[in-house]
Amino acid sequence: MNSSVQSNVIEKKMNIPYALPLVGEEEIAEVVASLTSNWLSRGPKTMEFEGLFAKYVQSPHALGLNSCTAGLHLAQLALGIGAGDEVITTPYTFVSTANTIIQCGAKPVFVDIDPVTMNINPNLLEQAITPRTKAIIPVHFAGYPCDMDPILDIARRHNLKVIEDAAHAVHTQYRGRMVGSIGDITCFSFYATKNLTTGEGGMITLNDPELADRIRVMSLHGMSKNAWNRYSDKGSWFYEVEYAGFKYNMTDIQAALGITQLRRLVNMQETREAYAKIYNEAFAHNDTLILPHDSAEHRHAWHLYVIRLKEHMVNITRSEMIELLKEAGIGTSVHFIPVPQHPYYRRLGYRLEDYPECMAAYEAEISLPLYPSMSEEEIRYVIEQVNRITAENRK
Ligand SMILES: *Cc1c(COP(=O)(O)O)cnc(C)c1O
């Protein structure tokens, strides 16, 4: 970077990390209570959290897990996806979406994104379907819903399952329907940076009670149902193993956090929404930026606030802009390094150039800080610095 793009002296420099969880007294009290309750592993708190979460997303069944990644893995295994099968997903996602397809022995098939929504483009889906295709995994990027009606319609016509990666989409609605109640199986993440956190954690929601049962058994060593209350006074020492299952269960310590976070979720979401609106209005006249898409038809969960730099209008690259923001004390991130770009996937023969919209989005994208524990003053500071940097480096 040459010195002419270095920032001028910033008055009142602030320090704003890219992401911080909102953990308060309530969370601490609930976790301490769970630690002194003698139930540390999966127990009553997990079941309570599952019930509350299922109700929240309007789904009949919810299963607490140790991650969203575990959920994606189990969902595919429970649907019988394995060697020789293909699963369609977006290249513009966190790598675990695709890794779990590989872990099942199947082949990921990437379908490019719609440049407006940055979600998988339903118009390109059908041409990617082969006789080996078993499922589609749409990812609700940044918390804005994928266009589910055409996706479900194509899936129905080709007899495919739809597993939603809803890691960004707690609170998202698609045409008035809660994400979590739409596809065959939905997988949520409660990782530390997500809108609702349990530190590490995840949840599966689904309609089909038999499938729910199978996933439950597979998530805890494949042990039969009798094992669930093995340590209670109703339980017995006897259990049977139905599958070579996994150790993917949620713990009551995580669930204690999750219950409190769920209680304050609507509040936290209102703050995200208000801040996103402030960003949108403040950047509306900055023509060097592409702003995130939104629509009154759906409810955006604003997990990420994603801007794209129009590099033809400025003298700096996206990466240089990230450095200038860092000098101004602002932490940012890039969502995502596209899956086909990672060395493992390149060795398998995938090429980012085959997904031109994904490549263009990746090269221009910056995720700005957006979380409920930020102050409005901090949001204003981010706006001021972004606008200053793009103005100083305009062509
Ligand atoms: C965070 C994330 C995941 C993984 O979630 P974990 O709970 O950490 O396993 C999966 N997909 C997307 C799109 C994510 O952002």
From TrEMBL:
Keywords: Aminotransferase, Pyridoxal phosphate, Transferase. Belongs to the DegT/DnrJ/EryC1 family. One of its GO terms (biological process) is polysaccharide biosynthetic process. The modification N6-(pyridoxal phosphate)lysine is found at K194. PANTHER family: DTDP-4-AMINO-4,6-DIDEOXYGALACTOSE TRANSAMINASE, TRANSAMINASE. GO terms for molecular function: pyridoxal phosphate binding; transaminase activity. This is DegT/DnrJ/EryC1/StrS aminotransferase family protein. InterPro entries: DegT/StrS_aminotransferase, PyrdxlP-dep_Trfase, PyrdxlP-dep_Trfase_major, PyrdxlP-dep_Trfase_small. The keyword Nucleotide-binding does not apply. The active site is at K194.
